[in-house]
Amino acid sequence: MSARGQTDSRGGVIATGSPAATAAGEAIFRAGGNATDAAVAAALTLCVADPANASLLGRCHIVVRTEQGGFFAIDGASSIPASLPRDLGSGPLRWAGIPGLPHALCKLHHDHGRLPLAEVVAPAARLADEGSSAPPHLAAVWALRASELVEAGAGPYLDGGSPPALFRHEKLAGLLRAYGEGGAPAIMSGATANRLVDGIRARGGHWRIEDLEAADAREGEILHCQFRDCQVTTIGRQGWGHTLLEMLAILDRLPKFGPALTGREACTLAAIIETCFEDRPQRLGSLEPKPDGLPFEALIDPHFVAKRGDAISQSLINGSVPHARVASELPTQALREDQDTTHLSALDASGMAVALTMSIGPHFGLRSTDTSFGLFPAKSYRMGSDPVPGARDVTEMTPTIVSRGGRVLLSLGGAGSERIPGAVAQTIVNVVDRGLGLPEALRAPRVNFKDGCPRVHADAGHEVIEALRSHWSRVEVHALGHESHLGIVQVVGERADGRLDGAADPSWDGTCRVA
User: How confident is the model at residue 333 (pLDDT cuts 50, 70, 90)?
Assistant: First the structure.
């Protein structure tokens, strides 16, 4: 059973950004796997079926709720090689980060999986051998970037200079099977790791075998907060969790939102998102530390949150917003390309939930593959701005689980770099405050903040759009879809009657399936 919108079951439910990945998770549920098994199978399948956003050489952050109701996070960030030359050079892979994904998925499965890893990996390996066709949104992005992939020599991903009708990757299939048999060490050490290092360095990267052998998955910082009658759990400073919780803490001080987005609500949301971005101790885009940045802990301090909430409320009454800037005051800069990620959520009948967000940077990462296996490594943004040897990358990934009364109300996350926290917060508001079902919560008009101005869905309506324009000199209006999206969210959860539920964001190719 599958649907672009809603599904329900008493077994397991999984929502991902790729039909093939969702199908892989469903198959693992049907084979007797739990939410962890299904999530790992889907994540590895995304590395095959969605090469624009995921790679075996990528990064991830994971939040898990165990069957017993405990929470933990896994930090699968990419990192900078431990030894760098003074000049990084101009090779296409000079900013290639050391992958965190292999160890993170291995740790997730080792600690909480039920089925053998080889069985969990099998759907992804089989897909790499047999091939897959790109769904519409991915196909459009693939076609848009085809000329750059040609220049980068990314042969496996093109056929005569165009995206292949059926994408196969036999070398990736072999790596996946090795991973299934030996876990992360099978590809991060020994002969395979040496070949990866050679393939990265051949295109200007700076990996060494010692970097791969020293890579690991770390325990992530877990954060909790109350929003209305719910507990919200997310990852901390590795993935912008403090920013999400600051947004929700400010919203929690305000009256509940009504059944549909109003102009005042849209202005409140935009002002909160902009304010929380200004409060972050890292700059948007580059993630460089601000010289006068606030401590992360300050962002969720109740007294600080109260002041921020009062300032936003008063400014809206006065017809302004705390950080609003006219267009002429915004710094002149070249248009930054859209960055992206992909997310999956899984939940089983025992109450185990997984929220897992993956990335390689912008679409297709550095647009160049290693020459040994033909894989895209993750772009390390920090290598471009502050290349400290050995430092781990910080991302906007915010995988999140919302609990109410001992059950998982939502397991969710999103794609879209700095659009993720705002999209996640609004999905939570749409369910908790507005009482919307999960498909309706994702289809509802959304507001976000990017490149110095509010963005809003066109179907928010005239009143909402004009209200935003009364506070900001520049407002961008966008249709649903992958172009200039406002966050792409995948969500699953348990209804009050015990049935499992899920939905995929209509701005991308995602699906939801149950077993």
Answer: very low
Beta carbons of 500 and 38 less than 8 angstroms apart? no
Q: What is the pLDDT of residue 287?
A: 73
Cα separation of 453 and 465, whole Å?
13
Strand partners, 9: 500
Distance, CA of 205 to CA of 332 (rounded, Å): 31
User: Which residues have a Cβ under 8 Å from the Cβ of 443 and sit 6 or more positions away?
Assistant: 5, 506
Contact call for residues 3 and 511 (beta carbons, < 8 A): yes
Tell me the DSSP string of 319-371: T--TT---GGGSPP-PPPPPB--EEEEEEETTS-EEEEEEE-SBTTTTS---T
- Cβ 109 vs Cβ 352: under 8 Å: no
Residue 269 CB: number of other CB atoms within 10 A?
Answer: 25
Q: Record the tokens describing residue 31, joined without a space.
A: 């084979």
The SS3 assignment for 392 reads strand
Q: For 228, which DSSP code?
A: T
Q: Which residues contact 287 (CB under 8 A, 6 or more apart)?
A: 381, 382, 385, 393, 394, 395
pLDDT, tens digit, for every residue of 170-200? 999 999 999 999 999 999 999 999 999 999 9
Kindly tell me the burial class for residue 317, based on how many C-beta atoms sit within 10 Å of its own C-beta (0-12, 13-18, 19 or more).
exposed
